[in-house]
From TrEMBL:
This is Putative YHS domain protein. Signal peptide: none annotated. Residues 4-41 form the TRASH domain. Pfam families: YHS. It comes from Nitrososphaera gargensis (strain Ga9.2). GO terms for molecular function: oxidoreductase activity.
Length: 46
């Protein structure tokens, strides 16, 4: 399980939408969280 960096929800990496930022994969619970990350990844990437 992975944690959505936007909302903190636990998600299944096999089913969740994914973005790669600075060589690290981030997984999302829904398209709106993915969009928020795409808009400002620096705010959510740890």
């Amino acid at each position: 399980m992975a944690t959505d960096p936007v909302c903190g929800m636990e998600v299944d990496e096999k089913k969740a939408p994914k973005e790669t930022y600075q060589g690290k994969d981030y997984y999302f619970c829904c398209p709106s969280c993915q969009w928020a990350f795409q808009t400002n990844p620096f705010q959510f990437a740890k």
